[in-house]
Amino acid sequence: MREVENLGRIIDGLIAQKRSGRLLNRWLVFVVGNGIDSVNNIIDDKALRLKAGGRYKTTKSFEAFKWRHFEYARYYSSTSLPSYAHYCIYKLVETGVCRDVITTNYDMFFDSIWEHSPTMRVHQNPVAEADEHSWEGYFATRRRAATGVRYWKIHGSLSHVCFGGRRGGPHHLYRLPRFAISANDDSLAQKYRIPTQAPFMGFEMAHYPRTTFANQADLIGGFRPYIDWTWDSDRTRFRREIDGAKEVLSTPAKIAAIVLVGFSGYFNDHDPNDAWNEELVPVIRHLRANGFRDVYMAVHENQIARISRPTYGLMRELQREKRCWPFRVSGDLFGDLVTKFCRTFPCDYAETEYTKWKHWYLSMVEADHV
Known about the structure:
This protein is α/β, with parallel strands linked by helices. It has one domain (2-259, 287-295, 329-369). It has helices at residues 2-19, 45-52, 59-79, 84-95, 109-115, 187-191, 202-207, 239-249, 280-289, 301-304, 313-320, 330-340, 347-357, 364-369; strands at residues 27-32, 98-103, 122-124, 126-128, 140-141, 149-153, 156-163, 172-175, 224-227, 255-261, 295-300, 324-327. The strands form 3 sheets. A 7-stranded parallel β-sheet has the order 3-6-2-1-10-11-12, with helices on both faces. A 3-stranded antiparallel β-sheet has the order 8-7-9.
């Protein structure tokens, strides 16, 4: 556990520097994948068909079932208690020693945490110029995020839906309301006797000259989750977010350590165009090749079971250096990190505050009902 202890010393040094009143010039960067919590692994089509048990034989009925599954995941992950690992990352962000949280997940756990902490000024995907439309808060402007916390959702989010253009033009994003939506087709528009579900963006078109808007008549009605799997893993729609996260990882002078949590780093070296390649892996490898050693990986035991496969080279490299550790529950690993290997992390206060979080979120009765 020597390398875990080293990560603890890095965190201690940053917290001590912050508490002394000195400005930080390097911060922690967290990269969070679906191994942090079991609810994140929600989009395997084969698993969903097994779950459906042959009940939905037509494409339309299965797509409707899939939509309800997404909506459950959205509502559950935005109203249920986040894990202790989520909390510890939040605490390091609040303390000021972590400035960037990057996630490939679609769930709403971090989103709900930021919502409960508005004074932290967390900016999601700060890639927009000052006069660009933010698409219902999916993007933030670069200028406003210069000194704040940056939250990168680089493969989409269950928080927003997408309206695509009929002729392949620009797509429009729209934030979903807090409650769960039961249908994802034009039956909603028919119910309320409106022409289409697609929003009219005339006001925005007149006020945001840098943003390209499609004509409303060209938009396809019906909600579509704004996640990469919906588009057959075509991540070109998320290019700006991905490039923004790459830029964060490409400036080692501003990074104290990179901590990969539940992120196993799939990358097919023989096929750079493999649709499931994690775009951040080459950037992290490039950093390491150029002498940046403080990269740590904590993965679920199911993820580390794949370590011998050719596509998990980064995991093998970090394990050889004793910088990769498995966990069964991510919160247990963070509990060890902050209690055994950090002297300055406010452990007692953190555990008390995390217990209070249970009263911030809706009861499990409501989540189970959904």
